[in-house]
Amino acid sequence: MGAVMDIVVWLRSLGLGKYEAVFRENEIDETVLPDLTAEDLKELGIAALGHRRKLLDAIAAMRADASIKAPLVARLRGTVLPGGGGWMLLRRDNVLDIEVRIVLETDDQHMIYMHWKGLRHGPKDVIDRLNRGEAVDPSSYYFRTTPYFETSSENYSWLNRICSIATGSRNGDRRGFDVYQVL
């Protein structure tokens, strides 16, 4: 699970990856992004009206989606502990069926068991590039998971009562996920 929503992936999915550095330098993350205005985008140096419009439309769509709450990573940060396990089955229809069970240690020292099932598929040339460890735009393939959490921590007990969905990406041997609570 990533530490923050992958703004870079989001920008690239919009065809606006050229603004990655600007967003990074100005610390635009999942908590700031939904509140950006046209004026903010101008101040960031996004001069092209079409690019501002595309960004504002994507931000509005994020806000309008009432079925999804802000990424969980805004409230949950930590690292994956050694151990756990993952199982993959490449089905006859070339869909990779994945199941993972891990333990997360939060930055404030609480343990959370996480398990998820997911599917990854896409055009053969894209999947071949992924399997070779090449950088591939996440919008060119499908990678979705359904994470569930268990913990005895009072601080994170709310995780025991939610369902979530996630979008995944892979870059070399690193995997990233943006996890959202389903309301």
Topology overview:
Layout: H1 7-13, H2 20-25, H3 38-43, H4 49-64, E1 68-71, E2 78-80, E3 85-90, E4 96-106, E5 111-121, H5 124-131, E6 142-150, E7 163-171, E8 174-182
3D structure, described in words:
- The protein is α+β, with helices and mostly antiparallel strands.
- It folds into two domains: 59 residues, DNA polymerase, domain 1 (Orthogonal Bundle), CATH 1.10.150; 111 residues, Beta Barrel (Porin), CATH 2.40.160.20.
- The protein is 23% helix and 34% strand.
- The chain contains five helices and eight strands, in the order ααααβββββαβββ.
- Strands 1, 2, 3, 4, 5, 6, 7 and 8 form an eight-stranded antiparallel beta sheet that branches.
- The longest helix is centred in the first third of the chain and has 16 residues.
- The chain starts with 6 loop residues before the first helix and ends with a strand.
- 23% of the residues are buried.
What's a concise summary of this model?
By secondary structure, this protein is of the alpha+beta class.
| Residues in helix, % | 10-25%
Poorly predicted parts = 65-69
Order of helices and strands: HHHHEEEEEHEEE
The overall average pLDDT, rounded, is 83
Strand content: 25-35%
First and last CA, distance: 20 Å
Q: Which fold name is given in CATH as the topology of the largest domain?
A: Porin
Describe the global form.
Answer: globular
Tally the structural domains.
2
**What's the tally of helices?**
5
| Counted beta strands | 8
Given helix and strand content, the structural type is: alpha+beta
Determine and state the CATH class of the largest domain: Mainly Beta
Radius of gyration based on Cα positions: 17 Å
CATH architecture label name of the largest domain: Beta Barrel
Task: Tell me the major beta sheet.
Answer: 8 strands, antiparallel
